[in-house]
Amino acid sequence: MTLADLYSIMPIIITAVGALFVLLCGPLLLSASLTAIGVTASVAAGVWAAFSTPTSTQAVAGLAFTPLARFLIPLFCFAAAITLLLSHSYNERRGIKGEEFPATVLFALFATCVLPCATNMLILFLALESVSFAFYILVSMDLSRAESGEAGLKYLLLGAVAAAFTAFGFALLFTGSGTLQLSGALARPENRVIISAGWGVILVGMAFKLSLVPGHLWTPDVYQGAPAPVSAFLSTSSKVAAAALLLMLLALSPPMPELRVPLAALSVLSMVLGNLAALRQQNIKRMLAYSSVAHMGYLTLALLSGSRDGYAAVLLYGAVYTAMNLAAFGAISSLSVEQERELITDYAGLGFTAPLRGGVLALAMISLAGIPPAAGFIGKFFIFYSAIKAGAIALAIIGILSAAASAYFYLRVVAQLYMHRGESPAPKPVSLAEGIALCCASLMILVIGVYPGPLLGAIEAALQ
Amino acid sequence: MLPTYLTLMLLFPLLGGLTFAVAGRMLPRTLVEVLACATVWGSFVCAALAAAAYTGPQVVTLADWFATFDLAIPISLYLDPLSLAMTVMIGFVCGLIHIYSVFYMREDEDYARYFALLNLFVFAMLTLVLGETLPLLYLGWEGVGFCSYLLIGFWYSDPANADAGRKAFIATRIGDVALMIALAWLFQLFGTLSITKVNGMGFLMPVSVITMLGILFLIAAMGKSAQVPLMVWLPDAMAGPTPVSAMIHAATMVTAGVYLLARLLPLIGGSEIALAAIAITGGVTAFYGATCALAQRDLKRVLAYSTISQIGYMMLGVGAGAVTAATFHLLVHAFFKALLFLGAGCVIAAMHHEQDIYKMGGLRRSLPLTFWSFLVGAACLAGIPLTGGFFSKDSILLAVWLKGGVLYQTLYLLGLITALITAYYSFRLVFLVFAGENGHVHRSSGLTVMQVVLIPLAILGLFGGLLDLPAYLGGGYLSGFFASLPADDLPSASHEQEIGLQTVAGALALVGLLTAYLRYGKGRAERMREAQAQPSSLISFLAQGWYFDRLYDLVLIRPYHALARFLWQRVDEAVIDASVDGLGSGVGGAGRLFGRWSTGKVAVYLISFAAGAALILGYLAWLAL
Amino acid sequence: MEATLFYILAAVLLIGILLAITARQAVRSIVYLVTSFFALALMFYLLGAPLIAAFEVIIYAGAIMVLFLFVIMMLELESPEKLAKPNFKNWLPALLLAGAVVGALVVLLASRVQAVPPGFTEIPVRQFAFALFKQYGVAVEVVSMQLLFALVGALYLGRRR
Amino acid sequence: MSVPLSHVLIVASLMFAMGLGCVIAWRANVIMMLIGIEIMLNAVMLTFVGGSAHWGIADGQLFSLMLMALTSAEVSLALAMVVYLHRRKQTVNTDDFNSMKG
Fold first, then answer.
1. pLDDT digits (tens, 9 = 90+) for B39-95
2. A214 preceded by a cis bond (ω within 30 of 0)
């Protein structure tokens, strides 16, 4: 191992060391400085990853800083940094104390950074499970609310079952192919049936992680129970990581025509049921959870196409979705008072009393609805474009129709913000950290929406 | 120079809108008002300069929006007679309406939001008109829809207004989806979304495909242009401020559908069926709108239905393949309809926001300027000979007549009947509002300026016919200008034929005028008395817009809500749990099935998850067998 | 001989698990489970994985199951009448779904003749160790982080307020 | 030894399905649900060890070892959560944890 090898996995080292450092020095430092350390570590890791050249050689046994990792690690770091910025004031309001929160966020970041670097299924699986593991802890962090612990237990029980499924899938892939190396494992033509069974079981596990129907039922409960910054992080990083895992596996394996129908079914069910279920939700976090189900359905639609365009659309949508959900949950987190504002009607008139946060929330909703020029439009455009190009026209039309219907419930929030006068308690003034986080997220939405060229270039490089 | 003009034309309102949206509240009111007008007039000046510099159809590529993978969408604009005429009209009408708005909205606190939306609307509309690629057009299309949604619900404190906004949004959304599907399909077929390229490649496809595409575009146009059966939103859209109605829901946005079809006519024109569908939609809508306008009592709703009807005429023109005639009517209509709405705005402002025409009267003396301009507008609408509306409407009817065939001749007759009804209801309006006595008005300094704005519109409406005089009067400017447009190769009429048809139409308009005079001018007192009584069933049928709202509520909205409610509560959480329990006890009666919904349980989640696993694995095993 | 032993062990394993999941008390089910895990460890040994067999006994039967017992004792869940048992209504979906899954899997895994089996070979501990630290060194680090945070999470939740 | 690989896999599948059945059926007791998950993970380990022996490489055994570590981490966190929630709600019946729904 040379120094250059170490440099190339530096983002992973930074996050791991950051997590340990926060844990060790937690009792000695103020919580503000812990958050600052966490943000610094994530930003440093992200910047380092963005500015180093990717290689295909293994730096350390089992890890390689691939082009894909170069694209995804900055994205994960962005999400983690925003989450940490948001969580500081939120935790103060909610009485969540201690170094555990920033340390666990950094641990989750560490695991997400390992995931795209993995060159074999063992590391891939461990990274994926570590991500979930960190979220089991983060979701139940709020000891003052019963829902938080309940959500944690639900997530853990279902997550463990899903993990067993995923592991079983990997076991079958290994048994069929005789190697755990990603490059070799999926290319073997023999033992086709065992491998296809393995794929089936993995899909089941991933349906849970991506919250695709019928593995989606945990999503609303967990989003509702978790602290809002954690929901922001959970709905972005863990989803994108799971999508990246599927992408890595699908891109390496030879075309598996038998997977088309299950993937299509998962995608259609998620798009339609997610949007329909969100339609009548009164609770904003549950509404966003169901919308997340629908959005993962769109993402699966792009995965299904199996082409390079489709994979590009997945990465683009991952970035877009990260920006949108960070903005939405960020605004929710920042607008919370002693209690979170649960109902959509609790947001009435906040567009005037809290212009920045109301505006960010409205922008996020407009983007989620896919209305130009927000980023959501570009993301959806590419998804449907790739699906149509791959010949999945019927699926694309179902997607377009359900996306059109979804505008209704997103714009309901906008209408509440700007077209009603509310008597809900006024929010606390926005703190500097929250302001920075919200501005970054909404800026990302706008920049991707108006000028997606550079991002598309980066994605093209990531798929080399 | 052309690229500079076009860029500036788009940039002015965009920057204005963004500035007001972000910082409008911090700027002084006068500055916002002046800037808002200045940006739009700047836009108009650019359009005029572009028109002066115009030599021939031209694609101007400003920048690459994205060009990655094999999809490249440049930001390119297309300037041809059609888009040029539209931009000049939009700049002018919107400019006047901005000035009008300044005075109309004097008392409103929310001026920043209002002008931000108005400016953004102008930007989106210009993007729609100028876009060379369909995605750019779609962007503008969505943009105008969004601005319109927010402006209809501008006075949101009244829930009815917010509802109207939502209704407009949903109805036009149906059209948007059709457009999106059509775009996706077009891309799949041709591999490009450039309008000029697509237009040139229509012959490559079988006619059935073109027909389907044409129908999809027609649905899109129905939503945006309020054509039957998606017209229900427009009358309700009158909930917004009157200048908004004038600008968006009469002069500009609602013509976007007509513009889209005219723009893509070289493609769609390949299919006779699609053209016929467009013509029928137009004809039926024209008739529908006119009959509904007959029975309305609300001043703005009369005008709204007349808009639906007039856009129906334009669609009829497009369906007959006469882009020139349709555009001619579009332009003239923009002038006189803006005029009518702004005049109505003056009346409403003067009458303390009273909109019931039966409670008005005698305004002829107290608001002479409004009266004369409104009279000109009504004459144009009615098609009284020698006004702009007369020539433009007539060129459409002429084109329909010349197209020949049973279908088009029937539509011609329908158009004539509609013209008669139109003349009747326009003057009904004039007589009820301006004739008679009891003219108490509320004067304000703003009212004078608002009335002055009407003058240029009145002149344009009155002499709009000069744009495209019939051939026997020396031919028109517009026809020559549009000669370069493809697919406008209609058989030309002989002068005698043309004069004959115009005589018929003119005579009908005069008959309408006369009938209206007899009923509402002379018999005014009697009508007033009748209005107090319970309306007859025919009248309420017409007044309610043929009960389309109720029909939709019954056929679409309730099942939709029921379905959503069912899927959300019942399938997702209740059925799975209840059926599991019901399976065990063996008696899963329907009542228990739906009545018992205990949710939030991990076990239910696990069972559905495992069921998914069983299904996926079962499918794979079935394949392997 | 070894093959017969394998099938006997498999039978013990499956019956043990069946008893464990239908046991009336959690403690009994733990005991059944420990038995099956011993059988499983022997099967691992037969399949040429002595190290995993040892770990199975030490970690699973020794540590994890004891942890379960400890928690059961601590929460005093032992009095059987306090806890609802799954009745037929609960078992039916479980049976249906597990049956469907196992049916599909058996069809998939047994319906085709496998590629020529190289025969089971024993893997020496040296090879195992080489693979662990040469090929998958990072996995050890990731898992160690995970164990650390399991501790962090458990301590956080167990903290008295 | 002359046991065909498919038999190992079938035993593992049976074990996996039994674990799944246990998780689904024991909705009244989180501890038993966790035991079911342990059974499922052991089935995965059996598959890995069988595959490892079939191909003569150590990778599968390694995966099993890591799974063991992972499960112990998961179990300790899960049990901590059970203790925590039991302290709050005096129950281990998952059906009682249903304050969020809809």
1. 989 999 988 888 888 887 888 887 777 666 666 777 888 888 888 888 888 888 888
2. yes
- Which amino acid would we find at residue B399? A
Q: What is the total residue count of chain B?
A: 625
Residues of C contacting chain A (CB within 8 angstroms): 104-105, 108-109, 111-112, 114-115, 134-139, 141-143, 145-146, 148-150, 152-153, 156-157, 159, 161
B612 — contact with chain A (CB < 8 Å)?
yes
Q: What 3-state class would DSSP assign to A60?
A: strand
| pLDDT tens-digit series, residues A47-102 | 999 998 888 777 777 888 999 999 999 999 999 999 999 999 998 888 888 889 99
The CA distance from A259 to A346, in Å, is: 43
Residue pair A73/A11 in contact by the 8 Å Cβ criterion: yes
The three-class DSSP label of residue B234 is helix
Least CB–CB distance from C17: residue in D18, D26, D54: D18
State how far residue B587 is from chain D, nearest Cα, in angstroms.
20
CA diameter of chain A: 67
Distance, in Å, from the CA atom of B505 to the CA atom of B366, rounded to the nearest integer, reads 33
Asked if D9 has any chain B CB less than 8 Å from its own CB, the reply is no
Q: Which residue, among A259, A278, A301, A315, has the nearest Cα to A457 in the 3D structure?
A: A315
Residues of D in contact with A140 (CB under 8 A): 81, 84
Closest-CA residue of chain B to C102: B614
CA distance B442 to B459: 26
Q: Angle between the B134-152 and B159-190 helix axes, to the nearest 10 degrees?
A: 170
Give the C-alpha separation, C125 to C141, whole Å.
21
Residue indicated by tokens 């997590």: A19
Q: Which of A104, A98, A67, A113 is nearest to A83 (CA)?
A: A104
Strand partners, A60: A63
Angstrom distance (rounded) from CA C96 to CA B613 = 12
Q: Which of C112, C136, C149 sits opposite A62 (nearest CB)?
A: C136
Q: Count other C-beta atoms under 10 Å from residue B239's C-beta.
A: 24
Kindly provide the ipTM of the predicted complex, given to two decimals: 0.92
DSSP state of A254: P
Q: What is the dihedral of CA A169, A175, A176, A180, to 10 degrees?
A: 80
Report whether CATH 1.10.287.3510 matches the domain D5-90: yes
Within 8 A by CB and 6+ apart from B150, the residues are B117, B165
Phi, psi of C46, rounded to the nearest 5 degrees: -65, -35
